[in-house]
Amino acid sequence: MAVRALVFDVFGTLVDWRSGIVDAFRATHVPGEPEELADAWRARYRPILAEVNNRARPWGNFDELRLVTLQDLLTERGIDLRWHALACCVSHSAASGSVLQRNTGRPAPYW
């Protein structure tokens, strides 16, 4: 059979996801260095995805897993997400108009 399509994931290669997250942390005044927070938050994605794949955690969509990892990160740093401005940013509503949703939902290209 002839190859009909070549498909690959370009997220993080052609898309600047990090700047959007850094900007969101900065815009919502989360205590800490925005760059370090973004990296620490992103580093939690593969481990939580592995938990889902290994059936150690129930299935969750990207937004649900992202919220769990953000809550864990901020809790470890003594920041209460419920009362923080960033809480609106990871809501499940696409219409929330939140800073993080806008910045991570449509990340900027590198060019």
Describe the structure.
The chain has five helices and two strands, in the order βαααααβ. The chain has helices at residues 17-27, 34-42, 45-53, 62-76, 99-105; strands at 15-16, 108-109. The chain has a two-stranded antiparallel ribbon with strand order 1-2. The protein has 111 residues and is mainly alpha-helical. The N and C termini lie far apart (36 Å). It has one domain (15-109): Putative phosphatase, domain 2 (DNA polymerase, domain 1), CATH 1.10.150.240. The model is unreliable at 91-99 (pLDDT under 50).
H/E order of the elements?
EHHHHHE
Number of helices: 5
CATH class: Mainly Alpha
Helix content estimate: 40-55%
CATH fold name, please? DNA polymerase, domain 1
Oligomeric assembly: single chain
**How would you write the strand order of the largest sheet?**
1-2
